[in-house]
Amino acid sequence: MPKLSQLFYSNTITHNQAILSEEESRHCVKVLRLKKGDEVNFTDGQGKLYQACIEDANPKKCVLGIQKTLEEVPLPTHHIHIAIAPTKNIDRIEWFVEKAVEFGVQEISFIQCDRSERKQIKLPRIERIALSAMKQSLKFYLPQIHEMISFREFLTRIKNDEQLFVAHLNEGERLFLKDEATKNQPYCILIGPEGDFTPQEVTQAFDVGFKAVSLGQSRLRTETAGIAACHILNIINEV
After folding, report:
1. Burial per residue of 28-46, b for 16 or more beta-carbon CB atoms within 10 angstroms, e otherwise
2. What's the pLDDT tens digit per position in 64-85?
3. Which end of the chain is more exposed for a tag (fewer CB within 10 A), N or C?
């Protein structure tokens, strides 16, 4: 990969041109003071890194002329989907999103559980945090991030090809995630609220194929558990 000092993002690409969003344009033109003719690098969030030249340094709609594709990163052989109950303190769940993107999560769902204290999130802000983390960590895939839905509705949307895990603290046997997950698979892992899943929710998860797992000996906060799960699954696929 070429050495990058700055990475932009655009999902508006036609022929040999790309248009930066208003926020990205403002950062490019107003903050960094880049001008027409300056070279920049950007990603489409789908695995491609481009070299481009600024054709119109408009702070609301900066136009880039694509010169060449520098790199095409293939999709990982595994897919990590974290379904997590947002914490009462929104700063903690935003921290989770930032760090999970840095670790390489591919999908995040927000679930409202019986013991959830937070009933809503501001998805546009979460998406901006994810985008910033993607650029900062020089990753070229922007994860899917879904609006919050109820835990029970989420269980109706699971994919049949995923390895399904639920991390909970209720009584019962739980094997370590590191031992239960196998390489090169799509995974979905449920992370409960600060008061944990109710026994009824755990049973409902079992009924649709989820397996109880432990993330280790320590008792983790919600956002830490989400990061731990993401890191464990990544390590499994790097061995």
Report:
1. bbeeeebeeeeebbbbbbe
2. 999 999 999 998 999 999 999 9
3. C
Cα-Cα-Cα-Cα dihedral sign, residues 133, 139, 144, 149: negative
> Which CATH code, of 3.40.640.10, 3.40.630.10, 3.40.1280.10, 3.40.50.720, is assigned to 79-238?
3.40.1280.10
Total H helices, total E strands in the chain: 7, 14
Number of neighbours of residue 85 by Cβ within 10 angstroms: 26
CATH topology of domain 8-72: Ribosomal Protein L25; Chain P (2.40.240)
Is pTM beyond 0.85? Reply is: yes
Residue written as token pair 């013991």: 115
What's the pLDDT at 172?
A: 67
pLDDT at 3 (0 to 100): 72
Residue 204 CA to chain centroid, in angstroms? Answer: 25
